[in-house]
Amino acid sequence: MRTILLVSVGVFLAAAAAAQPVAAPRVSTDDSWTYQDTTESRAGWRQTRMDATVVRVGPSSIVLANKPAGSTMPPTEQLVGPDWSRVRSIDGHETVVNRPLAFPLSVGKSWDLDYTDNQPSNRQHSSEHYRSTYKATGWEDVTVPAGTFHAIKIEAEGTWTTVIAPANSAVAGTRTDARGSTTVVQTGRATATTATGRTYKAFWYVPAVKRWVKSDEEYYDSNGVRNDRFLEELAAYKVAN
User: Fold this and answer.
1) I need a labelling partner for 35 at 20 to 30 A (CA). Which of 10, 75, 202, 227 fits?
2) Residues with Cβ < 8 Å from 200, sequence gap 6 or more?
3) Residues 51-87: b if buried by 16+ CB within 10 A, e if exposed
4) pLDDT (tens digit, 9 = 90+) per residue, 139-185?
5) Which domains does the chain show, CATH number per domain?
6) Using an 8 Å Cβ cutoff, are 46 and 228 in contact?
């Protein structure tokens, strides 16, 4: 009877702990993480390891130094939000383009991300629009190269829409007769077209690690065929208490 009671109390305490909101991490300078990154696309498969180290912590931002693991080259420094969100300047305005976490985290919490980029990095696109709804779905165990962790899982489903810029085309031909040769050039301009698709993302966040230990980001075309997948798994970490 005592054993049953102890087990029941343990289950109750574990459930109560899981129900507590997860506060934003207290990130410190020199906190570091090494991730094993796997990229899958129609062009092939690639796997690398990346180091991320905290350089500076401010009231509204964190500076991360990123570089390939083991590289002697200087790292690339990147500004991120205290919730690990990423911001870009779009049309002169700072715009959140990635927000996998929204503290305090609790099971059932959801948030949206919606933005349009009228100057995308892909020059063939005149605009790109992304919309995603994130939701903390529950706690679960996840195994990655760094070990097995109890993590709160966040999933996001969304859509993307791209306007492909019109392009100029030219066709040249040469006509020869008794009076000589003449080159004829015909030019044309295609109309803009729109492409759409869907996205899926998942993040497994562990409070003691201060970041996610695994992330999975997938992009699908209008036919529901996956074009790209970006998988990130924690390989090692060192954080201050």
Assistant:
1) 227
2) 155, 156, 157, 158, 216, 217, 218, 220
3) bbbbeeeeeeebebbebeeeeeeebeeeebbbebbeb
4) 999 999 999 999 999 999 999 999 987 765 555 556 666 666 666 55
5) 19-107+138-149+200-238 (2.40.128)
6) no
